[in-house]
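Ticket #4471: structure export looks truncated?
Reporter: QA, pipeline team
Priority: medium

Steps to reproduce: submit the single chain below to the structure queue and open the exported record.
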Amino acid sequence: MSTAKELKIERDKIVKGLELAYERLVKYKRQINSPLIIEKDGKIIELDPYEAPDKVKYKRGLE
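Actual output as written to the record:
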C-alpha cells in the first residue's frame, strides 16, 4: 500500500500532466485556428482559442 507521501507525489505528477496537456491543446487549437468545444453552465459552446488562458492551475486537493 502506498504511503500518503507517495500518493501526493503521484497526484502532483497527474495534475502537472493535465496542466501540460491543456497548454498543448490551446497552442494546437490556435495554430489551426479551431475553436475549443467546452461545457459551460450545462450548455455546449465553442470558445475562441485566443480567449482561453494560456495556462491553467488545477487545485491539488487536500495538502
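Status: closed, not a bug. The export was complete when the record was re-opened. Leaving a note from the reviewer for reference: Residues 3-47 form one domain.
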